[in-house]
Write a structure and sequence with these properties.
The structure is a homodimer of 151-residue chains. Chain A is mostly helical. In chain A, 48% of the residues lie in helices and 5% in strands. The interface between A and B is large, with 54 and 54 residues. Chain B binds a DNA duplex (30 and 30 nucleotides) through helix 2.
DNA sequence: CTGATAGTTAAACTAAGGTTGAGGTCAAGC
DNA sequence: GCTTGACCTCAACCTTAGTTTAACTATCAG
């Protein structure tokens, strides 16, 4: 194990990768995209402050929630720039995902329940049940699958 | 309105697009990817049987559930090739999404609840709470955010 | 028959979220 | 002081789910 940098308070890209489980290429990509920052050594190598680890954890967790990187970047911008973020700072920005997440859970549940409803007839949303509507009379109501899309 | 093709039992790509709300380019793409099929006229134009409308509805509904096209194609392969699928056929393949969907709802709920748990300390899954674990001692346990990923 | 509308193809392009490779540099251990 | 592994950049490539464009052909109403 070389380049431990463990006496210093900073970590290398390889260490950050090992600790976070995120490939170095992805970490460089995040930096290009403005999600994380690094100091450079005299030899142009990246050095990360330790709180970057938490930042990367926040990014990955947010991605697991289905949030696009651009949105994550914007929300990370709400953290204070002048000091190491506190627990309260992280708690505050975590709240940003709350309503989005609740909304998506509700949508999936609704879709699942409609799927259940329709399994009996196999209509799957396009024609409002072939039983009562044998030859897609719903075509008049405009394009798109109806039923599940509306409301 | 030209090319109604309504005397025939087949529909053109434009009609299918209008009825399904899916762009002709997407329908051709689905055909290249093996999700739908068409007959060709003597002039090389596509003609779809009417049940393609239901097939497309199934595709779009499945996509709304977050299923990738390749998976949808595989499941559509379970339909009978020799006859027009019945309601029972559609019901049967719809069941394929059931467990997947339930699973994803559970995962999102779990993530949401852990997010809630962690908002108090802002730890967000990487270090098992900075309160009891101030300097990421979890790094020994291998790469990747722990907590939310495990079990 | 003509003109408008609708259809055909292949290939290029998009966007997100990265990975891979070439060619070259840095830093640590012996 | 050299070797080796970790690092650097830049550009090209990957996947998914399509859209767009160019150049051309088919079909239909009148």
């Amino acid at each position: 194990m070389t380049q431990l940098a463990s006496t210093a308070r900073e970590i290398t890209v390889g260490e950050l990768a090992g600790r976070s489980g995120v490939a170095p290429s992805a970490l460089r990509f995040y930096e290009r995209e403005g999600l994380i920052r690094s100091r450079r050594t005299s030899g142009n190598q990246r050095r990360y402050s330790r709180d970057t680890l938490r930042r990367v954890a926040f990014i990955r967790t947010s991605q697991r929630l289905g949030i696009p990187l651009a949105t994550i970047r914007d929300v990370l911008g709400l953290l204070p720039e002048d000091r190491t973020p506190t627990r309260e700072d992280w708690a505050r920005i975590s709240e940003c995902w709350r309503s989005d997440l609740d909304e998506r859970i509700r949508t999936l549940q609704r879709l699942r329940d409609h799927l259940t409803d329709c399994i009996g007839c196999g209509c799957l949303s396009l024609d409002r049940c072939s039983l009562s509507n044998p030859d897609d009379a719903l075509a008049d109501h405009g394009p798109g699958p109806r039923r599940l899309l509306e409301e």
